[in-house]
Amino acid sequence: MKFRAAVLRSHEARFELEEVTQHEGPAAGEVVVRIAGCGMCRTDLAVRRSAGRSPLPAVLGHEGAGVVVETGGPDTGLAPGDHVVLSFDSCGHCHACLGAAPAHCDSFASLNLFGGREGQASGLTEAAGGALAPRWFGQSSFAEYATVLARNAVRVDPALPLELLGPLGCGFLTGAGAVFNSFGAGPGDTLAVFGAGAVGLAAVMAATAAGAVVVAVDRHPGRLALAERFRAIPLHAATADLPARIRRLTDGGASCALDTTASAGLINEALRSLRPAGRLGLVARLHTALPLEPGTLDRGRALVHICEGDAVPGLLIPRLTALWQAGLFPFDQLIRTYPLADINQAEHDCDAGHVVKPVLIPGG
């Protein structure tokens, strides 16, 4: 099967829209999905900073949503015509996977970031015949079609706006999952969110839906305005004595905080914003040492890393779509769509902060 895909050939190159060939049909347990839309995530763009680690040339993209067009046998649980949201890959049989914690799969990094399953090729080649890297996050969905494991495809209501649902498989899943799963936030809880991008604003929406009080911290006035629209208390990151201000707003300190910035300074301020026994979750990868200031972890405060919102995608994605249908999780207000051919403009706008969540439309 031949189709168009956005190929990244080197860590410094632009994406190029090319014709690629998928040489094999779906294996047992796999499905072929016609992509309706794919979100652009910071993790896709971080490949540019990981020279020598993530194999290239590759088709990236891991927030895909689309329609099943072919199945690899009768045991996939899906059928042609099903609408699905695609999420991250996991082995399915390690201790974490069997314990309903697939984001902590023993093979998470190798499966999603560094080349796929042992001995697996993507089956994708470029027009000249050269092989492309194995599936990115089990998807490679910056493309018109993707072949994925059926258990990483979550069936959704066909009445939903399919082209917009892809970010529910990663970015929005991470922010909302941090609130619902990692923190278990509910009425009476207080949450401080540092960084009001796609993940942070998803956390804001989830927390307000759960009945928690939310403070959102960012430097971008437009992001703070969005957070306020979603019923958060906005605070500029340059606010004088920011932790004390948050403690006053939350009657003694936030019960939990989420940092999406990986800024050592803001992480320390987030810790000082917590009440005793409060928890701070980090979702962004740290690229430098994290010096903690004296006293930040006193009195039972805890610092944890959160991967993929500690989510089981097949459980959380339907919950998020139900909240959207009820008007309680308006993630569509964060999205700007681009034709797949405009992927480089989408990347520029994302880097420049002009858009919260770009979504690429192959048919656009």
UniProtKB/TrEMBL annotation:
Keywords: Membrane, Metal-binding, Oxidoreductase, Transmembrane, Transmembrane helix, Zinc. InterPro entries: ADH-like_C, ADH-like_N, ER, GroES-like_sf, NAD(P)-bd_dom_sf. The keyword Iron-sulfur does not apply. Pfam families: ADH_N, ADH_zinc_N. Its cofactor is Zn(2+). This is Alcohol dehydrogenase catalytic domain-containing protein. It comes from Streptomyces ardesiacus. The chain crosses the membrane at residues 164-185, 191-217. Residues 6-360 form the Enoyl reductase (ER) domain. Belongs to the zinc-containing alcohol dehydrogenase family.
